[in-house]
């Protein structure tokens, strides 16, 4: 019998945690565009945002927007505090917008 782990087909296992069960069930999807696309600006922005515990997914995109950011926090008040204190003052960001999910249909 073939062992998929040994053949490199399965590269790992992961547990799925219910965010609401641990008090972090409020998610916001953000789009962000940078002021400049030079390497130092991009690398510094990515390092800064990736290090934030509220950011659970960070993707550099082709086209518009420059970045897709998924944020998970306790509630909308927590999001507002994080947004105004950690993101809105970031000089690398030219434009950003937030998307709130009405209903989760499929994961």
Automatic annotation (TrEMBL):
Q: Does the keyword Transcription regulation apply?
A: yes
- Is Aminoacyl-tRNA synthetase among the key words of this record? no
> Which Gene Ontology MF annotations are present?
sequence-specific DNA binding
Q: Name one Pfam family in it.
A: AsnC_trans_reg
Q: Which GO terms describe its cellular component?
A: cytosol
Q: Which UniProt keywords are given for this protein, alphabetically ordered?
A: DNA-binding, Transcription, Transcription regulation
Give the signal peptide range: none
Which Gene3D superfamilies does the record associate with it? 3.30.70.920
Q: Please name the SUPFAM superfamilies in this protein's record.
A: Dimeric alpha+beta barrel
| GO terms (BP aspect) | response to amino acid
Q: Which residues form the HTH asnC-type domain?
A: 1-25
Q: What is this protein called?
A: Unannotated protein
Q: What organism is recorded for this protein?
A: freshwater metagenome
